[in-house]
Amino acid sequence: MYGDVDGNGKITSDDALAVLKHVVKLKTLTPEEGKAADVDGNKEITADDALWILKKIVKVTEVFPVEKIK
Ligand SMILES: [Ca+2]
Ligand SMILES: [Ca+2]
Prior knowledge:
The protein has helices at residues 13-23, 31-37, 47-57, 65-69. By secondary structure, the chain is mainly α. It has one domain (13-63). α1 runs antiparallel to α3 (47-57). The chain starts with 12 loop residues before the first helix and ends with a helix. The structure holds calcium ion (2 copies). The site of one calcium ion has 8 residues, from α1.
């Protein structure tokens, strides 16, 4: 599921945090986690993806950009 980086079935701030940790190289995401993390679909994992995850949590956005591409 897009946005569920840690794979616990829910999109929470922990997922956004996991993305940010990857961005600052504190922790490297697995390819599977990376796929869930790239929510804007630009093939890169950046702080923008973390921002989208946070937007989804606070319901500023209903769907991720990557979900609109399909
Ligand atoms: Ca999660
Ligand atoms: Ca991205």
